[in-house]
Amino acid sequence: KERKLILAVESSCDETSVAVVEDATKILSNIVASQVLSHKRFGGVVPEVASRHHVEQIIFCMEEALEEAGVDAADLGAVAVTFGPGLVGALLIGITAAKAFAWAHQLPLIPVNHMAGHIYAAQFSHQLEFPLMALLVSGGHTELVLMPEHGEYQIIGETRDDAAGEAYDKVGRVMGLSYPSGKEIDELAHLGEDVYHFPRAMLKEDNYDFSFSGLKSAFINLVHNAEQRGQTLDKKDLAASFQQSVIDVLVGKTVRACEAYQVKQLVVAGGVAANKGLRTHMAAVMSERLPEVTLVIPELKLCGDNAAMIGAAAFVEADKQRFADGHLNAVPGATL
Ligand code: KG4
Ligand code: ZN
User: In the record, what terms sit under GO molecular function (predicted)?
Assistant: First the structure.
């Protein structure tokens, strides 16, 4: 049987990544060059700095991905690349590299939506079953996506202001933590208690939208008022209170959406899906309320940005004959 191999490229934000994926489910290599240290001192991703890093890293990442997978260009069936959403300059580096590689080796080019990639990261741990609900939680997005079948997406709810990961990073800055602070807040939260009981925005409203800016403001006000009184609040309790509010809203709305749309499977994906509190709380509530729905959360190292997930999603795009040519451009505001 002929092997089906895709070389996938991801450069939408602050990781340069290239992977070789076989048959949509097997990762032969997944090279991730993180720039996070370069952005830390600015407290966030600086687009121009990101582009420059991608330019420096992309060729090495491609070479390393092929070498680690033990294949060369002649073994590949296609090249896949993230076309959006993301930073325009960052996206263009990956797109240009992928186009050049595809052209040089006469391979088809497959454009992949970054958020679809996050969902398809789940396919490395479990076969996807439809209809499927996906909770996408990352630094730039928070949305509930209904998938009637492979490669078809309907957004049924999304954040009206900040994304969940963005809220983590902003609150982390107020706590004096370094960027990105999601992981550290998660660790602190497990050592503290929900003593401040922040608002659970929109939880009781009859829709699937989210809002995290009110929580962020409540958090900042609490910390600043305490500072003015000369008090410092316990970081562990602050983290635990913030995190519990985020989790209650994410879990509450997601479970309700799964019920309403009678899905077979729930996928939780994106950088914030690495959150230990979210993973355990979602699993507990789902098994109690909807035991018939399978919950799939990608393994930790595949929650953050990586090219293997782009490769997995690309197999579906190829089946649907959704290819691109040399005119492929970046779409910074692409939606699913
Ligand atoms: O998906 P991702 O790697 O990049 C985007 O596409 O945005 O997500 C990055 C986000 C950051 O906001 C980061 O703080 C958050 O994911 N994050 C976490 C955790 N690990 C990463 N948030 C909460 N808990 C974590 N353990
Ligand atoms: Zn992402």
Answer: iron ion binding; tRNA N(6)-L-threonylcarbamoyladenine synthase activity
> Which element (helix H / strand E) includes 104?
helix 88-104
Residue with tokens 């807040």: 185
How do residues 182-218 score in pLDDT, each as one tens digit? 999 999 999 999 999 999 999 989 999 999 999 999 9
Judging by beta carbons within 10 Å of its beta carbon (0-12, 13-18, 19+), is residue 45 exposed, middle or buried?
buried
| Angle, alpha carbons 24-26-32 (nearest 5°) | 100
Instruction: Please list the alpha-helical segments (H only) found in 145-272.
Output: 164-174, 182-189, 213-228, 235-261
Res. 1 pLDDT band, cuts 50 70 90: low
Q: 107-143: per-residue pLDDT in tens?
A: 999 999 999 999 999 999 999 999 999 999 999 999 9
CATH of span 5-119+303-319: 3.30.420.40
ipTM: 0.98
Indicate the pTM of the whole model.
Answer: 0.96
Same fold, 5-119+303-319 and 127-297: yes
| Residues framing ligand 1 (Cβ under 6 A) | 13, 138-140, 165, 168-169, 180-183, 186, 270-272, 274-275, 304-305
Q: For a ligand 1 pocket test, name from 183, 216, 299 the mutation site with the most ligand atoms within 8 angstroms of its C-beta.
A: 183
Any idea which fold 127-297 has? Nucleotidyltransferase; domain 5 (3.30.420)
Going through the chain in order, the beta strands assigned E by DSSP cover 5-10, 15-22, 26-34, 78-84, 109-113, 132-137, 142-147, 154-158, 265-269, 294-296
Mutate to test the pocket of ligand 1, among 138, 174, 279, 280 (most ligand atoms within 8 A of CB): 138
Q: Which helix (H) or strand (E) holds 96?
A: helix 88-104
Which element (helix H / strand E) includes 117?
helix 114-120
Q: Per the structure block, which two tokens stand in for 34? A: 């993180």
To the nearest 10 degrees (0 to 180), the angle between helices 213-228 and 164-174 is 10
Supply the pLDDT for residue 54.
96
Q: Check pLDDT > 90 for residue 2.
A: no
